[in-house]
Structure formats: structure tokens, C-alpha cells
Amino acid sequence: MNIERMFERGDVDQLVRSFLLLENADDVRAFLTDLCTPREICDFAQRLQVARYLDEGEPYVEVQARTGASSTTVSRVSKALNGEHGGYRHVLIKLEDQENGRA
């Protein structure tokens, strides 16, 4: 199944809408805890950190060493970071704005 068709599914759309209903960090933590295994949550966090380091210009090997991510993960995150959907890029911009008091 391709990515665009996946979001046409009712259950996937419901998942997307569910995230939009969360009001604060505690809500997100509770939902992630119920939805994912601890390993999955840590994997998501690792991928976001990989994206951040790559966005800052870190070399792949350094990103692997700093995060413990596999070369495959670093490569996939890099592809997504520079890809057409822009999810990582959008979140990284918002995180930077928040950290710099602009949000």
C-alpha cells in the first residue's frame, strides 16, 4: 500500500484525527503509552533526534554514533527529511521556534 492511499483508510484517518484532539503533553503521553510499546516510543524519539542532527549538518557516521541508530535508520530518516512530505522538517521548525521563544 502506498502512503497516499494509506491515509484514505477510515481507521488511519481516525488515528490522525485522534492526535488533533489531544490538548497537552500529558494527553499525548497517555495516548502514546496506550498506543505504542515503550520500544516504539523510543524508536520514534530516536528518529526525530536523527532528523535533528542531520538537519544540523552532522555526518551520517556521527549521527549513528550519537544516537545508536542503524545506518538504515539514518538513511531512511535522511530520505524523509529531504522528501516531499515535509513532516520532519515542519516539526523541527516548530520545535526550534518553541525553543527560541517564537511560538
Mean pLDDT: 95
The secondary-structure element order is HHHHHHH
Radius of gyration: 15 Å
Helix content: over 70%
* Secondary-structure-derived class: mainly alpha
How many β-strand stretches? 0
Tell me, what's the shape? globular
Tags for this entry?
103 residues, mainly alpha, 2 domains, 7 helices, globular
Overall description:
With 103 residues, this protein is mostly helical. The protein folds into 2 domains: 1-35, no CATH class; 46-103, no CATH class. The chain is 75% helix and 0% strand. The chain has 7 helices and no strands. The protein has helices at 3-6, 10-21, 25-35, 38-55, 60-67, 71-81, 87-99. The termini are far apart.
Topology:
Layout: H1 3-6, H2 10-21, H3 25-35, H4 38-55, H5 60-67, H6 71-81, H7 87-99
Summarize the structure.
By secondary structure, the protein is an all-alpha fold.
